[in-house]
Amino acid sequence: MKDLKDIKNVAIYLRRSRGEESEDLIKHERSSIQICEKYGWSYTIYKEIGSGDSIEARPIMCELLDDIGVGMYDAVVVTYYDRLGRGSGTDQDIITNVFLNSNTLIIETTPFTIYNMEDEASEEMLAFKQFMARRDYKNINKKLTHGRKMAVEMGRWVFSSPPYGYDYNRKTKKLEINDEQAKVLRMIYEMYLDENMSSNDIAWSLNKQKIASPKNTLWTGATILQQLKAEVTLGHIIYNKTKGNRKSKSAVKKKFEYVPKSEWKTVYNAHPAIKTQEEHDKILEAIKNNNTHTRKNNINILSGVVKCYNCNSTLTIRKSSHDGRDEISNCSKCKECKGGRSELVMDSIYKSAEALKVTLNDIKNDHLKDKEKAILLKEIEKIDVKLDIQYKAIDNIELWFEEGRYSSDKAKSKIKERKEKIYELENIVRKKREKLESFSSMTNNDRIKRIDDFIESMKKSSDENDKAKQNAYIKNIISEIVWKRTEWDEIEVTVNFL
Question: Does 280 lie in the same domain as 312?
């Protein structure tokens, strides 16, 4: 049986849960290294930050178990056994079996204890530690879940990012109206209800005005419908829509599923409303009566997109009296622009799309800008996660103070430290957002993919003879098509992409 004298090569496993003190991880690392140096062991450090609920959520732990399984180490050093895991019984069995089959020891530094899975006493002690660690985790998780539920019932926003039309106030933990975005939502409601515009046409209108979508890209008909149906803009928070873990693939986790609408829970008047209940009911009725919100039988492929070169009027598309083919009418406003065959415009669309792809592939500077945008977005996302961690840590400190685990002075001191960090992070993220403000998050690769998708969709809808779909696809990618034909019969078609 392997014991202390047989140990030469070890792994040090360090884990800090989100919201815990970073200083703790430093202390654990220092104490583990001191043990290794005391006994002359060579060591490799495995370090991660993440929940201890399951192995699959901890990639470094999975890597460590793979390395243990092939016999890379004589032992694994941890400050406390529960750092290895306090998840389900299945997870605990996996950990136990990996250590047992590889004859790898577990060394706990606080207090210094060696566990050998082949020893019955060690096995019983670890089984007891596993049970206590799991119970402790469940109790903490239960309290935090209860606290989250209570926060929602108080009208606080506890979900990831704020919905379009709102900003999250980290001090009050509630939603506040974003005036610019709320103005856009009001435009969407009016265009849909008062101007009888389809969701695709609304998206087209917003894109032509260069108004960024919720994801800082182009609007689509589907995004417009999401905003029209959103109940959060009534001032309410609706929760308990789903249960289970969407991301987890574990068989022991609760399966993700949608909860029936009758079981949803609503907190009314949690934040200021952007639309009234009357407007919301009218919108839902309109969507129910006509999902496409278009006159499909009367619409033409080029309806609304072809403009006169001289006066910018929208040119009418009609059927030719000779052969029934689509043709562009003369401009009825300025009388300067002559009409012609629609097929010339369609040819120009495809040629212009292919030419744009070549241009996008050749533009190096824009590619660098796209890369910079992507980096900025990732940096902002990371800082937002850090800010959420700080605010959740404050919630935990308050909870532990209420439970008597922290004195008043200690709680105040720790909250002060967290608030100073929050101030620092918010300054950093503000500057990054200012830099990103003029950028679109769409990269050149995204634009090229949109063109490829457009061409493929157009061909498919052409085979189906669905003119309404083709018109929608054109409006998803093109702002306008300028038609120029003079008395000298010179035809010029300019396709302007969004």
Answer: no
